[in-house]
Amino acid sequence: xxxLGSKVVLAVALTACAxxxxxxxxxxxxxxxxxxxxxxxxxxxxxxxxxxxxxxxGALPLVTVSLVIRTGAIDEGRDQVWLSALVGDMLQQGTTTxxxxxxxxxxxxxxxxxxxxxxxxxxxxxxxxxxDSAAAFVRLVGDVVRHPSFPEAEMARLVGDRxxxxxxxxxxxxxxxAERYAKLMxxxxxxxxxxxxxxxxxxxxxxxxxxxxxxxxxxxxAHLFVIGKFDSTAVEQAARTGxxxxxxxxxATVNVPTPHAQRSLVVVDRPGAVQSTLEIGIPVADPSSTDxxxxxxxxxxxxxxxxxxxxxxxxxxxxxTYSPFSxxxxxxxxxxxxxxxxxxxxxxxASMKEIFGQIDSLRTTPPSADEVKGIQNxxxxxxxxxxxxxxxxxxxxxxxxSHGLDHAWLSDYIPRVYQVTPSDVRGMAEKYLDPSKxxxxxxxxxxxxxxxxxxxxxxxx
Amino acid sequence: xxxxxxxxxxxxSASCVAAQSQKFSIxxxxxxxxxxxxxxxxxxxxxxxxxxxxxxxxxFRIEPRDRTGFAHLFxxxxxxxxxxxxxxxxxxxxxxxxxxxxxxxxxxxxxYFEIVPSNTLQTFLWAEADRMRSLAITQENLTNQQGVxxxxxxxxxxxxxxxxxxxxxxxxxxxxxxxxxxxxYGDLRDIDAATLADAQAFHKTYYSPRNAVVVxxxxxxxxxxxxxxxxxxGNIPGTPLPTRPDLTEPKQQKEIRASxxxxxxxxxxLAFAYHMPPRNTPEYFAMGLIDQILxxxxxxxxxxxxxxxxxxxxxxSGGINLLGNMFDYEGxxxxxxxxxxxxxxxPDEILKRADVVIDSLRTVPVDAATLARAxxxxxxxxxxxxxxxxxxxxxxxxxxxxxxxxNANYVNSLDxxxxxxxxxxxxxxxxxxxxxxxxxxxxxxxxxxxxxxxxK
Lengths: 461, 456
Prior knowledge:
The complex is a heterodimer of chains A (461) and B (456).
Chain A: H1 6-16, E1 42-45, E2 51-56, E3 62-69, H2 83-91, H3 100-108, E4 115-118, E5 123-130, H4 134-146, H5 152-169, H6 173-185, H7 198-201, H8 206-216, E6 222-228, H9 232-243, E7 264-269, E8 275-284, H10 292-302, H11 309-317, E9 325-331, E10 334-344, H12 348-364, H13 369-387, H14 390-402, H15 407-411, H16 413-419, H17 422-432, E11 439-444, H18 446-453, E12 459-460
Parallel strand pairs in A: 2-6, 7-11, 7-12
Antiparallel strand pairs in A: 1-2, 3-5, 3-6, 4-5, 8-10, 8-11, 9-10
Helix pairs in contact in A: 2-8, 4-9, 10-13, 10-17, 11-12, 12-17, 13-16
Chain B: H1 3-10, E1 16-17, E2 27-32, E3 38-43, E4 49-56, H2 70-77, H3 89-95, E5 100-105, E6 110-117, H4 121-133, H5 139-158, H6 169-174, H7 178-181, H8 188-193, H9 196-206, E7 212-218, H10 222-233, E8 256-262, E9 269-275, H11 282-294, H12 301-309, E10 317-320, E11 334-340, H13 347-363, H14 368-387, H15 392-405, H16 414-419, H17 423-433, E12 439-446
């Protein structure tokens, strides 16, 4: 079906004349799209190396503030998994002049909450507050990140909270699978260690937190984003006074891994499980590559959108699963493609057969121009939808920044999506999505699924 | 309520903006098509996108008694084909035009919405009208979606540690009226029992234009949208509405205690919930502020008592209406608090700590600084809802106030309703609604259930 184009116009004209009762009507064709450009940003470089990006945007009297610092799991040693997370937790326990509860009251009085999240490559202090509190919130974020008190008395409680989180995560099939998948993909690298052992977690100390902070948190690794309705002059002033005299510190760590690209099968036994949780993946090009955008089109067509081939197949035709999806997960200068699904236990092997069948088919036969056009429209449309919200636009700016891409990369995104051809899509699948080199992780009822998995390899420990 | 009628009387082409002196208000206009369909229009020209949302006044509360989970299963069927769009064609039409879509089944409504480029508004008003007019599905599609829905229940409840806690469980324990207290995700046997005839009857009864509201928000011309709505929806036959069952809950007189064993869990969990005051009363708005004072954000008293000071848990969560927000429901509701903890702390010890801060609100009028913070947080929370989910949050609130109260513009009075709540109203509300005898306590105990069954 093609909702765009001249054929549709013709069909609508016919409808207006005489039509047999059982003949289906065609949807009214869309009008000409309105132009869209990303909102202008004001980019400021502070003398200490910190970057500031201000984006006045939207009508709601809210502002989103996000301070991204280039550190995280990437800076953890082999026996320090989640230490960076505890640094984030400890940063929220107060500053040299304000207790944790005084900070909480101050932020609440601005209508928001301050949270610090730590990922593989980024530690992010962010919150959304009423627009007229933007400058005050920027100053407060500066105080929290620059002058932590790291109170010894809070450490045991925070470690206890992380122990509970770890224990609960290890009961969740999707988390169990994610852990094994990361370990397979990135052996002996921080990206491959997403959960610590309970024992290691129990040994972390305040002095390790302080040491990690001193080594990795500084102006040269920091980028402040402010998006929404706010007074630009006041916020710029707050950023300059709040961060201008922050020590530069060490540049961000660059540690690019070589991901694992060979067929492996890992099976985690969950006796009695009514579903099998699958993750099937392989290394692909990262966002700095010219293949990235063709890969996005390929992924959205294959499994990354509701109307994609794999989802249409194992959900809408077969009914094996509720929310299968594929995605390309990027780290700095490395990425993997993977398909994830929770499938009915008895259909574990059948689901894998369908998934690999869809991949094989795309590797041999280019999709139709109509199918590619539909996916291009989808990606371009979703790009605009995201850019229409403060957090969505923030995500786009942060993504480009964290991968060392400039604003031009963002504004060229939509034209580049439309440059991808059907033969590019087939070519991407052939180049990157080789089933014989894919890793497979399954958590399910081993005694029921073992036979179903036989065609896909011998399970490794 | 009268607002929509007044707008209808003065003509619908212009936006009717709330005549209130407050910081932020949204334009609201609308009307009623002769077949009974109501519509609400709220332009915002920030970016070239529009949201089209159709809300039907059928939530899972009032699904047929021998068909638990049917309202939700039916929601899936609305994507399986209509007169002019076959299975998956609706989805493809949205995606290939650069939009996203979803549907959801909630306590008091089922909704369908698309967020799409503004140049496609006509296309999607046509498409939504098509599936309001007719359901055209096959046994094969029904069987397929029974499989998908059962997979959904498995992934969200049966194969998941703490599955259904507390969002699916709590209403079943806290309520006594079957309509509020049944398993609305559905017994897998009931899901299997559904027939094509059930689906057609359900569509005819509840998906009538008279039982629905269409909302358009975003970058569009209201007079053009009105014309398209009348063109595409206007000739759908209006059918009389069924009588609505009695959804009221009796006043709770005694604390309820319930416990559930979860063989997939490894740490205990605790939730407690209180029945809410009736909607849109001073006490209801006071409960919104109480939620801010006790539960939302790191300054909240329960967070300070159970996380920051005692380390009982790493987070307390919850609120009013766990499947949405305090504005998008109609029938009886509970305010819920939940947390995960270690075996070293008993539920009674944790409740005792919670009661210290809850009782503080029931005995002493709230201080001015705390109240001021709560009002600011509530205002920001409201703005976040209105701007959230790619702007869909605005359509959601407009649809609910139109559907439940015939007064979409009520959304523009919400902030002022919170601002006028006094310490005396908060005290009175806490005394009556935060009574231990108005409370249900649910504990999750890790381990093997005695009878070998998983879940309730």
